[in-house]
Design goal:
The protein is α/β, with parallel strands linked by helices and about 200 residues long. It contains 7 helices and 10 strands.
């Protein structure tokens, strides 16, 4: 993802569905798979900071993984240009960002502290497990059908029953898994794993 809150309606659907996720009151485990330079991971952290009470937020972590170590190094720096911030309103910017130079905005420390970055090749490694929310947007478009099925199996293993799965706008839950997930909203590619 190259911008904060890309597809804002998707983030709105996730915001509305968080309270329906079993176990959410004890802190959330969130996984952003294929996080690139961190815009999506930080967007998730901002969203969670807005909706979770402080005691729950203090027990929440966003795992952000990617195969590209250089992209992750850039993500950890947490500096972003104006053109990646277009979906953030002034209040959100003031609350979660600050100017670090003439051209860069930096994500605030509290928000950065929610996110843990790490290198992970989802094709070769087993995923993070027991997550309440899993963002895996625009990754399947790079895989053939066989690899998509293999990776989806790993993602399904990672998500707790009742957890949320967020896919890219051009992606779908594979037909053989559709009985395990129900859509959240219409045409948003946000799904809840059935309990």
């Amino acid at each position: 993802m190259s911008e904060f809150f890309r597809d804002p309606e998707v983030f709105a659907a996730v915001r509305g569905a968080i309270s329906s996720v079993p176990g959410a009151s004890g802190g959330l485990r969130v996984w952003c798979c294929g996080c690139a330079t961190g815009e999506e991971a930080y967007s998730i952290a901002i969203l969670l900071s807005d909706v979770l009470p402080p005691d729950v937020l203090s027990k929440t972590v966003v795992f952000a993984t990617d195969i590209d170590a250089d992209a992750l190094d850039q993500a950890r720096i947490a500096e972003h240009r104006d053109d990646s911030l277009g979906n953030m309103d002034a209040d959100c910017m003031a609350k979660y960002m600050f100017m670090s130079s003439n051209v860069f905005w930096k994500v605030g420390y509290t928000t950065r502290n929610l996110v843990r970055f790490g290198v992970l090749d989802i094709v070769k490694k087993h995923p993070i497990s027991k997550v309440h929310i899993l963002f895996c947007r625009n990754l399947f478009i790079y895989f053939n059908k066989e690899l998509q099925a293999e990776v989806f199996r790993k993602l399904d293993f990672a998500i707790r029953p009742g957890g949320l799965l967020v896919l890219g706008m051009a992606e779908q839950v594979p037909p053989e898994w559709s009985h395990c997930y129900r859509p959240v909203g219409r045409d948003l590619n946000v799904f809840q794993k059935k309990v």
